[in-house]
Design a protein that fits this description.
Elements: H1 2-24, H2 38-41, H3 44-80
Length: about 80
């Protein structure tokens, strides 16, 4: 349970950093016609989105890892008992 909370906190901090990076770049928005151009992929908007995705991946993988760790401990206790 503690590891899930730790991964959740780390992931949320990374997601918040991504959101702040995206919000900070809203003053210089890329026009809709340039969303497929190289300017969009070099913008802070895209970087913030990638950082947010990385944060969510950390949360998801941390929760899955904690689930398997807890499950394996429960199963080993039942087998040894």
């Amino acid at each position: 349970m503690g590891w899930t909370l730790l991964y959740g906190i780390i992931g949320i901090v990374i997601v918040v950093v991504g959101v702040f990076l995206m919000v900070g770049s809203l003053n210089s928005l890329v026009p809709l016609s340039n969303l497929a151009s190289w300017d969009f992929f070099n913008s802070n908007l895209f970087d913030g989105f990638l950082i947010m995705v990385i944060g969510w991946i950390i949360i998801a993988l941390g929760a899955i890892a904690s689930f398997f760790k807890i499950n394996s401990e429960i199963i080993s206790e039942e087998v040894n008992a």
